[in-house]
Amino acid sequence: MYFRDIIGHHDIKRHLINSVEQGLVPHARIFHGPEGVGKLPLAIAYARYLNCGQRGSDDACGKCPSCLKFDKLAHPDLHFVFPVVKSKVSDDYLPEWREMLSGRAYFNLNQWLQFIDAQNAQGLIYEKESGEIIRKLNLKVYEAPYKVMIVWLPEKMHLACSNKLLKMIEEPPPNTVFLLVTEDAENVLQTIWSRCQPLHVGGIAPEDMVEALQRTYALDGERAEMAAHIARGSYLRAVELIEASDENSFFFDLFKEMTRASFSRDVKKIKGVANEIAGIGREMQKSFLLYSLRLFREYFISNLNEPQMVYLNKEERQFGERFAPFVNEKNIQGFYDEFSLAYRQIEQNGNAKIVFLDLCLQVTLFLRK
Predict the structure, then answer these.
(1) I need a surface site. Which of 3, 75, 244, 262 has the fewest CB within 10 A?
(2) What residue segments make up the domains of the chain, in order of their start?
(3) What are phi and psi of 197, to 5 degrees?
(4) CATH architecture of 246-367
(5) pLDDT tens, position by position, 30-72
(6) Paired residues of 80 in beta bridges
(7) Cα 319 versus chain centre, distance
């Protein structure tokens, strides 16, 4: 991953390059911002540039021994930590991680867990990972200027793991750089956050998004602009829209089933939908809840007759023509509160059948307001 491969973020790339040229390399950075905007690719490109033997004015050279090893994500001074399952450590999944990154640089946790066939397991960075990190970073730098540890989604780090790393992050060995990449800054342990230099990575600019979508998918201008508008700066979201991902379509079908069953007050149908959602796995359940929250927000906004503020695809918009009037100022807060509560309960391993049956019954009440 090179800086030139990253969509947009020209100012951030220039800032990172300038900091290296000026010798201002903090021992720990945390890249934070929304999902799908390129934080992980930025961290990898920055790590490459740090260790490039022939740095250019705007990117790594791509020819030196360090860059050739980075091409395969196999540099001995580059280390990764990321959520895994079965109480394992990241190195156990390193071949899959390299394969995932070589195939697509923009992905989310749910896609990663599907790639490693996690089934119903939630991805975590377990306590034993801290020992591996400390062991690796206490070794001398092998051949590069810097030893780099990239931690993807530190918010998924077990508390015991986080606490054991505090001293290492605060006072790492010489020429060691931590690069943390988070999509949920509020859930990163504050004591870790305070030891890092934050770098906010916002949404990709619409013009950069449109250009990338046209180049990659050969879209006409109108379709590319529509996808960029709905995606709101997330390249991952734009790709899902264009590819009409099975997951997105599945969530939309589930949402329609849930709202129709709840509106009909048919207890048998409500139980059926609740059981169906309860059987799709916890990470998928969490993604569905977030998807539903987004749809409720969009349908509420659509009642204001401000189309430029609405981010729906064609199918979602068509369904909303009849459904949106039932999402109003009397129930929108209730929808938000109940779906957010369900998300927390699922994250805390609550009984999914009970959680989703209760949620569907609450939807029944709200739709009658």
Answers:
(1) 244
(2) 3-200, 204-243, 246-367
(3) -90, 115
(4) Up-down Bundle (1.20)
(5) 999 999 999 999 999 999 999 999 999 999 999 999 999 999 9
(6) 150
(7) 27
